[in-house]
Design a protein that fits this description.
Elements lengths: L7 E6 L2 E11 L2 E3 L8 E3 L5 E7 L5 E9 L4 E2 L7 E8 L1 E2 L5 E8 L11 E2 L12 E4 L1 E3 L17 E5 L3 E7 L5 H11 L3 E8 L4 E4 L5 E5 L5 E6 L19 H6 L7 H11 L5 H11 L3
Parallel strand pairs: 11-18, 13-19
Antiparallel strand pairs: 1-2, 1-7, 2-5, 3-4, 5-6, 8-16, 9-10, 10-15, 12-14, 14-15, 16-19, 17-18
């Protein structure tokens, strides 16, 4: 089968199953990988694929190899089988734990994320109409303490609106961790992030070079997560692995002193508008 740029593929190597991302498809001429000094010729009938290797966590390694189509298989899942995208800051809708925010925002090719991607009202969200529901997790279930605990007793409600897909739910303070989530939520320090299965995502590159997300099934995971509260940023692939844990947010404050100092440090950490640097800034500010 033919493969395209940015496809994730696997193949069998001497060390077992290897994986990578197609960076270039050569159908006329030669191409050389970074790992050897050899050159490989690609033709229309037998394209050569320049592939960037991925590490065990599914992250690019910066090294490239060349493979031909007959040796490759399309990789339908990344390391976790999950891809994520930012929504907007969470709104505290009451003093009883009710919250809401846009899990997805609609924009256009002139207002994209850092990877040049955007959602539109025509994106297929698998809502079964204009409404649906989703579980509410902390940081996509990757926190070592909360793990995949559902933060809301009932699934949060999803409603497709003119500006995006709104998510609304009801939290409870069942222990100190959930109390911390509610506190951060009330202070406006948290945002929304949707998670979906990577192999179900469909995208199209527009004439401008921006990438329109055509399909992003919702309902798997609507997460509460620390992020810069920058409403103009509509979508951004989340650096999920680098997000601080809730335990770190709660416990590793400067000198572990007052709540005011904690909030001051957290606020300073979340000032950068570049979401890819926010997690590092947060950890630095909390002296981790």
């Amino acid at each position: 089968m033919p493969y395209s740029t940015d496809d994730r593929v696997t193949w069998q190597s001497s060390g077992g199953t290897a994986s990578g991302v197609v960076r270039r498809v050569v159908t006329s001429g030669e191409v050389s990988p970074s790992t050897t000094g050899e050159s490989y010729e690609g033709t229309e009938d037998r394209p050569a694929y320049l592939i960037e290797l991925l590490d065990d966590d599914g992250e690019p390694r910066g090294e490239t190899v060349v493979r031909f189509g007959g040796t490759l298989s399309k990789k339908t899942h990344n390391a976790s089988g999950l891809v994520t995208a930012w929504g907007t800051p969470i709104k505290d809708l009451s003093d009883t734990g009710r919250f809401g925010g846009y899990l997805v925002r609609f924009t256009d090719e002139n207002t994209t994320d850092f990877d040049g991607e955007f959602f539109t009202p025509d994106t297929k969200f698998w809502l079964g109409g204009e409404e649906g529901s989703t579980h509410t997790l902390w940081s996509h279930g990757m926190d070592p303490v909360l793990q995949q605990r559902r933060l809301t007793p009932q699934k949060a409600r999803l409603v497709k609106m003119d500006a995006g897909v709104w998510m609304e739910g009801q939290m409870q303070a069942r222990d100190e961790y959930e109390e911390a989530v509610l506190h951060l939520m009330g202070e406006g320090r948290l945002g929304m992030s949707s998670g979906t299965a990577s192999h179900l995502v469909e995208k199209t590159k527009t004439d401008s070079g921006a990438v329109r997300i055509d399909q992003w099934p919702l309902g798997l995971d609507g997460s509460v997560t620390p992020r810069p509260s920058e409403p103009s940023t509509s979508v951004a692939l989340a650096p999920t692995k680098s997000l601080p844990t809730l335990t770190e947010l709660m416990q590793r404050t400067p000198d572990r002193t007052t709540e005011q100092q904690f909030l001051k440090s957290l606020d300073a950490a979340l000032q950068p508008l570049d979401e890819r640097d926010a997690a590092k800034a947060l950890l630095d500010a909390l002296s981790l």
